[in-house]
Amino acid sequence: MVRTVYSPEYCLQYLEQYATKEVYVIGLILGQVTESRENVIHLARTPDEKNDASSEASYASEKPEPLRTLLDISETWVADHAKHVTRMLPGGVFVLGIFITSDEDIFEDPNYFSKVKSVLNYTHKALNSNQYMYGNIPNSNEKLILHMSTSTKVLTCKSIEVDVGSKMSIKPVEWKFLPKPQQWQRLDCYYDFDEVYPVLVKNSGISVKHQFQQILESAHKTIELCVMFIDGELKDASEPLEQVFKKRKIIIKRATDNPKSIQVSLFVPYENTFPETVQYSECDGHIHFSGVVASSIFMYPKATIKEATEAVKQDIIRSLASRFTMHCDALIDDNLLPEEKICFNEPPRRVLVPVGTSYFCDYLFPGEAPAEALVSVKELLDLQITEADVVCDIETPADTSEFDALDRDASSEELLATPQEASQFMYITGICFAMFVLIVSIFIHYYDGIVTCLSNFFSKS
């Protein structure tokens, strides 16, 4: 059976505008794959290559080099573009492959096709370098190649397996354009973080990236265990999303209009267990990670609850991984130990940007205006939007008022104060009494077990 891909009609117009100019263009195919259907959401042209293609920061350069032939394409440049764009994708949306406009037939010319395979292989490996970014579709090595001839305007699509050595198979793909815009089911989730992590100094010092990697690993394990509730109810994993929305529509008696979004919640199953032995180790401080991560995903209506649950979890972890990477890249010093006893940090907050009938996202550092998002959207997604299009209220800036006292009195009991209503997450690094922090953390997590042990001890006495 031939694989079929569906995309909005404006993608055809997008391709034609470059093919008409008779220029070489390469870009990314962005979309969602479910058991019921494969949907392309957007095509994003890769920016012209700058002088230094080996660095992600090179996208800020102002000296583009025109692409003279497809053989001049830099694999690293396309891979960097894919990594940047992946940060902007909601959960459940991936880089499905690449598109090309050129005069040559890339499937017939062995030199060009070899170059295309090299680009896809390099991009696939680059996106796999950070497992928490979910750069590639889980359990799939197939990538799309969409080609439009600049001379004949003929469109050809095929799929190939990447990262499989010389056994790479090529399959035909039927690409269908939809005359009507695709309607998506939107699910919104707010996931609350309030965790304390110990900081351990090694011989090489404390690396911010290393500590964040540990936080991501811990968060990933917790979120993977979560159970998703829709409107406070646990749904059958095989039930299509559209059925849930139809039932909700009947309940709220809105016969002429579908609800725009639905609220979902993730709950961590509670296990009342206490280890037989507790190990104590010294640490040099702690990171208090606190706040709320806003998640908005867009799913094909016939997608199942199981697929939607996976997308929500991917979205939260991908958002954390993206912000941690951006935050670390912005740091002058990778050393986690602050000069003062308390160091407050606010990673970038999330905003939504419209792409077709759905939304992607971008991140703004404290003090940045929505206009900053326009630059990223234009450069990475090849889209023109206005400031009014940017949705900035899904996460609000962190409320730092409760931490003002920390600068005045680092020994105050307010060291463990936590903002109660901040919709943005933050982390506080403290260099304090390590054993005290560790004991408090253990006490909080294993309170019931400690009480039981103490009761048994005193009863025997």
TrEMBL record:
Keywords: Membrane, Transmembrane, Transmembrane helix
Protein family (similarity comment): Belongs to the ODR-4 family.
Entry's localization field: Membrane
Ranges of biased composition (kind: Basic and acidic residues): 44-53
InterPro entries, sorted: ODR-4-like
Gene Ontology CC: one annotated term: endomembrane system
Name of the featured protein: Protein odr-4 homolog
Main location class: membrane
Highest taxon of the lineage: Eukaryota
UniProt region (Disordered), positions on chain: 44-63
Matching PANTHER family: PROTEIN ODR-4 HOMOLOG
Biological process, per Gene Ontology: intracellular protein localization
Residue ranges crossing the lipid bilayer per the database entry: 425-447
